[in-house]
Amino acid sequence: MTEEKRVDKKSQHGEWSSRVAFILAATGSAVGLGNIWKFPYIAGENGGGAFVIVYLLCVLIIGIPLMMAEIMLGRRSKENPIHTMEILTAEAGADKNWHYLGWMGVAAGFLILSYYSVIAGWASAYAVKSFFGSFSGASPDEVKAIFNDFVASPRQLLFWHTTFMLATMLIVAKGIEKGFEKSIGLLMPGLFALMILLVGYAMTTDGYFKGLDFLFKPDFSKLTANAALVAMGQAFFSLSLGMGAIMVYGAYLPKDVSIAKSSMIIAGADTIVALLAGIAIFPIVFSNGLQPNSGPGLVFETLPIAFGNMFGGWLFGVLFFIALVFAALSSSISLIEPAVAWLIENKGFSREKACLWSGLVAWLLGFGTVFSFNVWSSVKLFERNFFELIDYLTANLMLPIGGFCIAVFAGWIMKQEHSKEELDLPGEHVSFQIWKFLVCYIAPAAVFLVFLNVVGVL
Questions:
Q1: Angle CA(359)–CA(162)–CA(297) in degrees, nearest 5?
Q2: Which end of the chain, N or C, is less surrounded by CB atoms within 10 Å?
Q3: Contacting residues for 348 by C-beta, under 8 A, at least 6 apart
């Protein structure tokens, strides 16, 4: 196969119909529970405004260069992440063991999907509970009891996990244009509209300006070294890097679309959603005398108290949890796609059959997460239940290692003329050298620090 033919080939799965379609899809992959559920509570735990500044800097100097690298690798090969690393390793004349990077990305995304679907099922259930007024007038103890009763029921968790996984499989089975593009074309505008509505409501509350101060007024006395590392990790994980999703989306990207411009827009949109979530949530929290640093329970235990006891809370509670489901669904379809693409390309499966088997295995694996909150809650391995172990393995080990390796491969292993060709940066020399410096030195060092932090070395 000649170099010219290899570069010009297209993915057998098709291509995005436009740059807008790709940006919406990749933004959907990036925007998820990490933006609306995780970002507000970790900002609350780490001092608010100062944390946000560090987070934004990390998106700019680490997240965007790594996203450009991952999209570039996918588009260069036009294959699933496993084949991508095999092809590009051979092209660079590098050690064949680099292809394990592709396997790790696909495995990480698949494992994340197995528990992501369960947590997304919680949001789906809470949207229904909000609609039927389960939180109306509820006291903090009553809301906590609702949550505890819910997660203690394997039957309820399995029902919502199954419902969410089926929705994911149905979308992915329809392919790029009929599945991804049509669903994302509804989910992402819908998500932004819902978030703006929620922000509009937050502006009417007594705690609006207190919430803004908390989120944007920096107090660097509260910014510890650990908080800076948490911000770095959140910026990295929020953009869906290191799990094969962005790489496989890059494989469907037409040659004439700018990777640099697309990456900046995607990172910008992802960050805007996270900030909108904070702007919507913290005024509601402060208006109701609740604590902004209440941790992971902020969404499922703290906010329902506020929604249940404020004017218009029924409507805005429903809208909030629907927004959470939209965000989760836009991410879940990207988490399953690398495995689906590999089965189609490597095993000759039809897209429908590949979706069925991938979804079935992820669904069965999700049982471990479901049971972690009830019948297996006392079963521990390395002092963690099944859910905590899978979450730790993926978020704290596989993704940082994957991100580090992507940076090293793109910056040090891949031939410079190939990366220049794919990136096609404006003002070629200076802009390319800036990207090269960030991806060769800054991003690997930063991701390595995150890795040392999460394994307890720092």
A1: 110
A2: N
A3: none
